Amino acid sequence: MAIALSDLLDEKQVILRLRSRKLPNALREITHLLAQNGKIDNAEAFLEQVLARERAHSSAVEHGVALPHARTDFVTEIVLGIGRSRAGIPFGESGVRARLIFVIGVPQRLVSDYLICVGTLVRLVKDDAIRSILLNAETVQEFLDALTVETL
């Protein structure tokens, strides 16, 4: 059975106010949140994999959204950590700023579930109304509710 985005959402894995202004530090903030919640076996090694993937191919998509990820043995299930930055974090050589960052860890065996997860996220953040809620949500619950609108 395919995974649903709502299965990956956890209020303990969302940062509405990233402190970092640079990509490696922002990803470290999100990755450490996942590690604190027991979702990643080795946070630093996972972070290095995400950064290496990011250096090879920027994950910034349209509308100020980025989906940095790694296919890795450091997770046993798909994990999702989310960070929001008011100023935006520069991604890639172009320095396009992402205000919504969805860090995804994927076990090698769950690639098809990963594609479903990413497809759902991209579809949701393309919607102007949903993206506006995500960018302006005052609480983590309000933020997560916007991502689960598809299941209503």
Number of domains in the coordinates?
1
**Stretches where pLDDT falls below 50 for ≥5 residues?**
none
CATH class: Alpha Beta
Major sheet details: 6 strands, mixed
Number of discrete helical segments: 6
Globally, the shape reads: globular
Number of strands: 6
**Radius of gyration over alpha carbons?**
14 Å
CATH superfamily: Mannitol-specific EII, Chain A
Roughly how much helix do the residues carry, as a percent range?
A: 40-55%
Order of helices and strands: HEHHEEEEEHHH
- Calculate the terminal CA-CA distance, rounded to whole Å: 20 Å
Derived from helix and strand composition plus strand pairing, the structural class reads: alpha/beta
Query: Averaged pLDDT, please?
Result: 91
Tell me what the CATH architecture is.
3-Layer(aba) Sandwich
What fraction of the residues are assigned to beta strands by DSSP? 15-25%
Q: What is the fold named in CATH at topology level?
A: Mannitol-specific EII, Chain A
Descriptive terms for the model:
alpha/beta; globular; 6-stranded mixed beta sheet; Mannitol-specific EII, Chain A
Q: Can you lay out the helices and strands and say which pair or pack?
A:
Elements lengths: L4 H4 L5 E2 L7 H14 L6 H14 L3 E2 L3 E2 L2 E3 L7 E13 L4 E11 L4 H16 L1 H9 L3 H8 L5
Parallel strand pairs: 1-5, 3-6, 4-6
Antiparallel strand pairs: 2-3, 5-6
Walk me through this protein's architecture.
There is one protein chain. A hairpin with a 3-residue loop joins β2 and β3. The mean pLDDT is 91. It is built from 6 helices and 6 strands, in the order αβααβββββααα. Strands 1, 2, 3, 4, 5 and 6 form a 6-stranded mixed sheet that branches. The protein has a single domain, classed as Mannitol-specific EII, Chain A, CATH 3.40.930.10. It is of the alpha/beta class and 152 residues long. α2 (23-36) runs antiparallel to α3 (43-56) and α5 (128-136) packs antiparallel against α6.
